[in-house]
Every structure is written in C-alpha cells, then in structure tokens.
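Example complex used in Figure S2.
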Amino acid sequence: MSGWRRHTGRIAHLAMENVDTDQLIPARFMSAPRSAGYGSFLLHDVPEAAPQLTGASILVAGRNFGCGSSREAAVYALVDFGIRAVVAPSFGDIFAANAVNNGLLPARIDTDFLERLADAKGTAEIDLEACEIQVEGRTVPFFLDPAWQQKLINGWDDIDLTDQHQPAIRSFRKAYRDQAPWAWPGREEDA
Amino acid sequence: MNGPHTLFEKVWARHEILRRADGAALMWVDRHFVHEGSHHAFARLAERGLRVAEPGLTFGVVDHYAPTRERGWIADPAIRRMIAMLEENAEGHGITCFGLEDPRQGIVHVIGPEQGLTVPGVLINCGDSHTSTHGAFGAIGFGIGATEVAHVLATQTLWQAKPRVMRIRVDGALGPGVGAKDVALGWIARLGADGARGYAIEYAGPVVEALSMEGRMTLCNLSIEGGARCGMVAPDAVTLAYLEGRPFAPAGADWARAAEDWLTLASDRNAGFDQDVVIDGHEIAPVVTWGTSPEDALPITGMVPDATSSAHARDALEYMGLVPGRPLVGTPVDQVFIGSCTNARIEDLRAAAAVLAGRKAKVPGIVSPGSSLVKAQAEEEGLDKVFEAAGLEWVASGCSMCVGMNGDLVAPGKRCASTTNRNFKGRQGQGARTHLMSPAMVAAAAVAGALADVRPMLEGRPL
Ligand code: SF4
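Predicted assembly (654 residues):
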C-alpha cells in the first residue's frame, strides 16, 4: 500500500444514515477473489446511489457510515471503484480500521461542517497532514486518529512494523505464559 | 496496577505488549477464530510466504457458508469452494478446524464458549463483528477485518487504540416473556446504532447478574449493533459453573488457579466510567424492530412511527412497507427464522418451543440451532418435534438465514420475523424485510402469522 498526503477529486453525496456494509457490498459477492476487482459490487443493490458515484473519488455520507459486519470487502468495493476518502460524522469502528488498512481515508467531520458540504459539487482537495478539505473556497476540518494519519501518509504495513517488535513480543509471551498458564487452551485429553 | 480499575482496563492491561507515542497499543491475542470468509487473509499470508505464528491459539470453523440441508453434497460450486478453502488452509497451517462433518461444528460464537475456548480474562479476535459475544465471559472480544486477520495470523498480535469504557447498568428485574434481546435492542434504540462508538461496554446491575450465560452472550453479541468495540460482563459463579469441565477449559490444578484469578476481574468499587447509563428492567417490554437499523426498535405495544421525523425513517418505512401510526401488533409476516449467533443456543430454542408447544405456525419458517451439539441436545429434549409439529423446518447448524451466504434467503418483499441481529436492507436477501426480536417473540409471530405480543401466549405455561 502506498502512502499519500494530498488528493484532489470529485465529490459525490450519499445523503443516507447508517449505510451498512451489507449495502456497500451484498454478501453474495464475497466469495470472489480480490484479483477479480470489487468495484462493480459497490452499492450494487442501491441503484439510486449509482448516478452520483460515477467519476467521484470523495464520498460525503451520513452518520454511522460502514456500520455492521467486519467484511473488509466493503472497503475493497469502495477502493476498487476509485474512492479515496469517505467524509461522514461517524463511522463503524471496524470499517474505519479496514479503510485505513487499504489507504482509504475515513474523515470524521462535525455535523455542522457536513451541512456546509451538503451543496458542494465538483472538485475538492484533501490535505491529510492538515486534516482539512478545501472545497469551493471553503476549508472544512476533519478528525483522524493520529496513528491512522501516520499510517495513511506513510503507507505503512502493520506486519512489517510489528516485526521490529519481535523481541518484545517473545518476552511478553514468556512472562504471560508463566503468569497465566490457564490462558492457553486446555487439551481435551487433559480433562 | 494501582488505583481502582474497570473490568475492561484489567483485561486490557494483561494484553498490552507495548504502546507507541501515538497511542496505538500492540496487543497479545489469546484466541483467534477463522471461518470461510477468512480466505482473503490466508491469501495475504501466502503472498508473503508467511506461516501462522500460533496454530495452537487459532481455531477454524465452517459456519457462514454451511449448508443447513443435504450436507453430504453441496450443489453450489462457489459454496463448496469456500468451505474447501478454509479446510485446506487450516490443514496447511496445522490449525484445529471444526469442519462440516465435525460433531462440534456450529456458529463460531456459539462453539467458542461451548468448547471452553472462550474463558474469562482473555483477548479474542475473529473476522466477524459479533465476536463481541465472547465478552459475556469477562473476555475482550471484538471483530476485525481481513488485513487485521492476516496480521493476527502472522504475529498473534494486533495494533489497537484503547477505547473508552461505558457502563450499562440494568436495575430491577425483567418481566415474564422479556429477555436479554429486549434489553439489548432497548438500549440501542435509546442511544442509537452509533451510541457506543469508541466504547467498550460493561453490562452490570441485578438484571445482568441474574442472566444465564446464554442471556449474557445475547446481550454482548448485540453490543456491536450499538457501535461498541466490545461488550463485557464480569465473571462470577454463573460463569464458572458454565465453564467447568468444558473440553478446552483449564482442568485440575489449573482450573482452581484460573477460577481464583478470574473472580478478581470485576470492576473495582470506585472505578470510573467514561459514561454511565442506567436502565430500569421493570420498564422493558418485548421489543421488535420496525426499520432497517437495529436502532429502529420499539416495544411491541407501540405504533409504527411517523415517517416525517427523518429521512432515514421515511426511507426505512418505505423499504419495510409499513404505514405510520398503525399498531405494530398485527403486521402480517410471511415467514419466521430462529437461528444465528444471537439466539440459537439451547435456552433460546427452549423459549421458542415453550410458545409453540401444542400450537401451529400460520407461516412457514426454519429453525437452525447454533451448533451441532445444540442440535443434538434439542433433539434429546424433543424440541425438534415441537417445531416440526408446529409446521417449522428443523435444519442443521450454521449462519443460515442470518446472512444468507449458504443460500437460505428471504425472497424479495417478504417479511420475516427473525431472531437474528441485523435488519439491514438486503441482509437476509435482496429486498427482504426483517423484523428483529427474541426467540419467544418469533414463536409468537409464527403462531399469529403476524407481529404479536408473546406475553398473553405464555400465560399458564411453564417457563
Ligand atoms: S450468525 Fe450471523 S451474525 Fe452470527 S456469525 Fe453468522 S453471519 Fe455473523
């Protein structure tokens, strides 16, 4: 995954609350391998969303976007479609983490600011370092967890990062096992 | 650890390997469950040539795509492939897998506790949002996405930001016909589907203490529907009684030490919570959902709400085909479903059977037990006969109509009274209309052929 600092793209609106991951990608498409491309599954059963989405890379949505299941396929569908950022007052927790793991920005904004974006059309510019969106001469701030900001900017891969901590993990495991052996699963034959 | 701490903080502290300056903590994972949907994560591992770090702490289960009928031969090649892929990945990495033919097979959040893999004080992950269920044992359990699943497979750790802690205290007692599902849908309706976003929840108070482990699991299961990272209940004598002697639970001297340790995991008396919510158990009536989010829930005695209140309500009512101002009771349903990790344990089946005994269902429906062991026990108790005599179909265990991946679907436009956890548009099938409620309430809907209050149907019956 490559990192990014700025993105300029067209805004699309999905003025709905609680857009859940079952809507973002219906379960029936999820057995496909990622290499097949997930873009055509995005909001497949929400046809009223389609016209707005074409050509857009920044999605402005209502509260609790991406609530529901942990299916990362919902993020694959957005990313493969060409979406780089979702702007909403709140996100499902697991969705937001999945988004960051795929270079997709979950930008949380105040409801007041959302109203300011409501009539914005055309192009917007996202500045990941400043946590701001510039659109039609206005600047709208957004909130992003600092750890996620660093990850998006640097395109970090967690497995590589964690590898640097192998000694700490090993000594933790040993101490923990001594302290709480019962935290390891018992074996049927021991019972 | 000094000073008063919450249950959540105590369990969290045991698992924190290190914390970065930006707040991200590297957490040790005690149990990792994988299912057919974990194929993306295994593919990532293969791409990088990595092995599963701790196969002994990783367990596979076939549930999401498990056929509930004709298990011997799976007609759909895509479903066959999904199941085969998991079984191959499990074998290749030396992971214990509860496959389709295993007598212990079932829904991951049912079999974890059933097998004694879920115990107090541990941290549990699975690529499924209802991993919050395991918190009923005083564990931290939460769902993760595929990239994180790959990370846990490769390292047995996970990067996490520590959530805040909310306590939901349920005072008083519950009336007859009211249970954990009603408590859960009730608080979600009050706080909203994102009301607990960023929080770990601790459920407490006399109502929670009086719940069985199965009720506590239902309560914790639905935490995610209120947006919470996880839900927890402090371990107590009820927890220990449930776990003792389970196949993977500690045994012998280990059991005694474990039990002693686990009972220390309660929140200290002066522990501070970031948010405190109090609910009066006496005020809770059986709840049903009317819309397309779990927050769209009302007591069965209520009316279909006014659609002008919000764009969401308008849209939800149109999708659900409901008329504002009409009573919820009497809304005709086309079918029922009893199943899922929320409500398909033995007590759930007993509660539904108590209503259905000696009665006929006016609409068709299926009953899918939460695990193959639950199925066997229900058959021993004769519950299968009760369901079949009422006209419902008794099928094998899996996620089934909760998510429809195995082909058990609600047809477009059809209305289903369901014990599941999500009434999202299209969740049970394209165009399906889902009303969430407890197993007893689904049984009542089956008998009435419409949304109904179960309480009068329970009069004079042993509960
Ligand atoms: S029963 Fe439903 S909610 Fe539970 S694990 Fe299966 S698909 Fe997920």
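The pocket of iron/sulfur cluster is lined by residues B 63-64, 107-109, 128, 130, 340-341, 399, 402-403, 421 (CB under 6 Å). The mean pLDDT of chain A is 92.
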